[in-house]
Structure formats: C-alpha cells, structure tokens
C-alpha cells in the first residue's frame, strides 16, 4: 500500500489529532477498572463514603471527557475517510481519462465502475473504522493485559497465554479473507458487466425476444455473487465465536483460581473484579477486532484493485513539441505496422501514404481490413508498433498530445451523444462556442432545419445515448460537433452511413467548400467516388491508391467493390 501514503500525509495533522483523542479514550477505559478496584476495596468494603465519592467523581469526570473526545474523534475520522476517498476517486478518474485503448482493454468499463464506487466505499469504511476503533482495539488488548499483570501477575498469566494463540488465528484469517474478498469483487464486476450490457442494449434484447435468456444470465451471475459473498462472510464471522470461546474459558479459569486465593487471603475482591473486568474488555476488543479484520480483508482486496488502476503504466504519453506544419503534407505514414497487444499477427502492415492539406481522401476496404485502426493511430489512441507517423514533418509521438487532438475533428462509427441538451452536445467539442457558431455548424451538418422544427429547438433534451433521436439525426449532430471545433483535419469514420443520398450530397458539398483536410472512411460508392483520392485497404495492407477513374482501370478489387453496389 505504498501508493496510499501520499493520500494520508495530506491529512497528517487531523489523523494525529484523531489518534490522540482515541488514545485518550483508551486511557479512560483502561483506568476505569483500576479506579473501580480502589473504590471497592478502599471505599465500599470499608464503608468510607469519602473514598467512594472521590473515586466516583473521578470516574464520572473521566467518562464525560472520554465521551467528548469520542465525538470529536468520530467527526475527524469521518472527515479524513471522506477526503481520502474523494482524492482517490479523483486521481483514479483522472488516470482513467489518460488511458489509451490498450489500457482500456485490460480494465473493462464494468470493472472500472466497480472500482470507483464499491471498492472505494469498502476502503472508506475501513479507514473510518481505523481512526475510530481499529487502532484502539489492539491497544486495548495490550493495555488490558498490562494492567491485569500489574494488578495480579499470576491470574493475568492466563490471559497472556491465550493472546498469542488468538493472534496466530487472526493472521491466518486475514490471509484467507483477502483472497476470498478479491473473488467476491470479481463476481461483482461480472454482475455490473451484465447489467451494463442489458441497459445499453435493451432495444436489441426486446427486438430478439431475449428477455428470458438475459434474465437467466443475470440470475446466474447474481447467484455466484451471492454464494461467494455468503461463503466469505461465514468464514470471516468464524472469528467471533472462536474468540468468545477462548476468552470465556479464560475468565472461568481465572474465577476458579481466584476462589482459592480469596479464601487464602492472598488477593482482594476488588483485584479479582478488576482482572475480570480487564478480561471482559479484552474479549470485547478481540471480538471487535475480528469485525475490523473482516473489514480490513475486504478493504485490502478493494484497495489492491484501485492500486492496479493508479499504477497502470500509460503507454500513450504527450510529447513536448508544438505543432508546425511547414509544407503541403499534413499526414504521412512511413512504413507503419500495428499489432494489438494480445495478437501475434499485424492488423496493419507496412502502411505508407501521404495526405496533403485541403485534400479529401477516402479510405475503403472490406470489414476487418484495418480502416478504423488506421485512423485511431492518427489521433494517437494507439501508437504504431513499427514505423513512424508524421504530422507535417514532425513525428506524431514528439508532439503535444492536447494540441494534436485539438486540431483533429473526429466522428466515430457509432454516434456517441451525452445526456443533456442538443446545444450542450454540440458545444462539447468547443465549450466557448457561441449560439451563432452552433447554428452555423448545424447548418453545415444539414441538421439545423430538423432542430429548429422541434418545440424546444437547441434546448431539446437528448436522453442517455441519444435514444430519442434517429440514427441519421445522431450522425449529423456528431458531425456538427466536429465542425464546431474548426479542425485542421476532419476524420469521418463511416459517419454518413445513416444519411440518405440527397442529404449526404449536400454535406459533401459543404465539406468541399470548407478549409479543412478530410479523411473519409466509407463503404458507399456514392461517397468515395467524390474524393480527391481513394486508398484501398485489404487485410491490413494498401492494395491500391488513386482516383476513381484510375482505380477502375488498375484494381480488380476496386472494380468488384463498385460492381457489388451497382
């Protein structure tokens, strides 16, 4: 847990104060049995009212001060636990925002949701308990044993013998508990994954009548989570009855031995009461410790999962150079190959081409030919395995990442909208955009008339994932969002697939009039034949490049693609 140290050090003063108050509570609790012994032996048995009053008042004052200290300790403990959890959640989210696609492959979205919510909540609970009672429990055990030895070493020896056995038992319990709770959290990941998929694809489930299947799948995952949780909690709860058995047995032995010594007059009644009182407090502290250790086991498993996120190496790092485009070449691929991290064959192989400023280039090819991967390399969602990509005459990896991506407008295959208004979704790419800029972007994207026909126009609410809009409307809103950022390079990844031919033609005419370089991924003949240049990909390799006319004459694959849509 080395990564935890910086988070705790930010609140070291509050932690020290909380622990000091906890220690004061502990002192009050340890002093009470000793004072009670004096009250019994020197006051009650001798019928001395002055002594009874003196020790009684001391115990009352200490109890009130301990109560006040406990309230302040609770407040400070809650403050630290909430603050550290907040900092952890913020840093983890910031780390996730810097993840590349490779990092996201390792951590599924459902697992990240669990780590940012349930795992941090488990850690928060334990941190609060640590400052409130967790540190107090072992100290109470040690302090009670020490005070019992001080009262009478012979009887306290029984408690001293029992303690190592219980410590070894708890060490074994913790090791098993951490492993078990890791399995529980993974089962929770699975439940979240299925629930997330079902909520995201509810229309598809209804369309194919898969209610029963998905309900059964969710039931099975929930059943596994329930069984593993019950099994783990039952195992951890085993600690309490074992502790109670040993401690009650110790108290019985103490009372049995004390009986003979009371008759012999070698021990006072108050001393026996004090030792039994300390034994009872130890029993309470140890049973409390078993509960704390269960929380620790779960918190340790949860924090290790959070630590995996916080320490995950980011493979896409920003360069230091400002972008300077000094010639007509905007993008250049120099013998670029790419392998996914879990594959031993290339998705792209020896790719080499150049895109010039203000040129419209169409990227075509069969499904799985590597088109989407290629454009993700330009935005540095991945870095190439071999070769170099240049922006202007500068290697892509040497450039400032934020500046690079600010120059690129990107419209993905699946139009991704956020819950909020239409205005907020379009302004997502340019937070400072004025209403006039928004309207112009919508006019260029051929969506303005549709929006202005709505009752609330640009303030129309977009539901989660944009389900209240058609596919074509979502695509045009995504295109408007890319337009408003005034990009130098506009990448459209099959972004006109849901548009009719008339609307698409108007959109392409607007693109031709804009001062922008366009990389267009498409399968539609009506679209790519209008490009200045066409690049044909097949099985990760460039098979042909040229204009529509030249490819018709030179490429058999290209002629087959065109013929298939005739």
From the structure above, extract its key features.
566 residues; alpha/beta; Rossmann fold; 2 domains; six-stranded mixed beta sheet; 21 helices; 64% helix; transport; cell membrane; ATP-binding; ABC_transporter-like_CS; nucleotide-binding
Would you give an account of this structure?
This protein has 566 residues and is α/β, with parallel strands linked by helices. The chain has two domains: 2-310, ABC transporter type 1, transmembrane domain (ABC transporter transmembrane region fold, Up-down Bundle); 329-564, Rossmann fold. The chain is built from 21 helices and twelve strands. A six-stranded mixed beta sheet has the order 6-9-10-3-11-12, with helices on both faces. It has a four-stranded antiparallel beta sheet with strand order 2-1-4-5, with helices on one face. A two-stranded antiparallel ribbon has the order 7-8. β4 (386-391) and β5 form a beta hairpin. α2 packs parallel to α6. The radius of gyration is 35 Å and the shape is elongated.
Give a short summary of the structure:
By secondary structure, the protein is an alpha/beta fold. 64% of the residues lie in helices and 11% in strands.
CATH H-level name of the largest domain... which superfamily?
Answer: ABC transporter type 1, transmembrane domain
Residues in β-strands, percent: 5-15%
Unreliable segments of 5+ consecutive residues: none
What share of residues is helical?
Answer: 55-70%
Strand order of the largest sheet: 6-9-10-3-11-12
Largest pleated sheet: 6 strands, mixed
Number of helices: 21
Query: Can you tell me the number of structural domains?
Result: 2
Which geometry do the CA atoms define? elongated
Radius of gyration: 35 Å
Class based on secondary structure composition and strand pairing: alpha/beta
Second CATH tier, the architecture of the largest domain? Up-down Bundle
Number of strands: 12
- Integer average pLDDT: 78
CATH-defined topology of the largest domain: ABC transporter transmembrane region fold
**What's the CATH first level of the largest domain?**
Mainly Alpha
Distance N to C terminus: 64 Å
GO molecular function, one term: ATP binding
Subcellular location: Cell membrane
Domain ABC transporter: 331-564
Main location: membrane
